[in-house]
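does this look right to u?? cytidine-5'-triphosphate version
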Amino acid sequence: MDEVLNLLASALWFILPAYIANAAPVVLGGGKSIDGGRQFIDGRRIFGAGKTVQGFVAGLAAGTFVGLLQGIAVGPLPDYLALGFLLALGALLGDLLGSFIKRRLGIKRGGAAPGLDQLSFVLVALLAASPLALPSWEIVLTIIIITPPIHLATNFGGYKLGLKRRPY
Ligand code: CTP
Ligand code: MG
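got this back:
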């Protein structure tokens, strides 16, 4: 039991900057889209109107800030700051990649893509952080297992609070 709780705590602690980077755009995003309204060769939007410059920048700043706080809390500060930045950048790029794939599959902005919606951000975040820090495989596996339910639960919360238009 203690081991499971330890694993959960380690997983959450490690991936927290990515979670915050993924969530912040829901509240802080808006305005000009990253693709500027442009279409891919298939005639569909590159990323879609749900991916904004402001959301990307806000997510990157928020995730990096979490890394800063973690560094202040337990240190070493430069390592946590860099890790927060990489996890946030990876999360936002992974989210963009997810939207790119969704558009190629013909799924409209805001449409559901089970699996992709919940995992693309966290997988690319782990990849981006890996040159600096790759947690044990048990922690990586825990992150992959807990992320979809946490993502669904927080999105549902955001919907209930009126922050999101859809409950997933
Ligand atoms: N958001 C943003 N900029 C980003 C990412 C997200 O402004 N780079 C905001 C948008 O308002 C978006 C909301 O956060 O609608 C929720 O994000 P997400 O669910 O990833 O986007 P969707 O609107 O569902 O679009 P998609 O179908 O492309 O996933
Ligand atoms: Mg969505």
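The mean pLDDT is 97. idk if thats expected tbh
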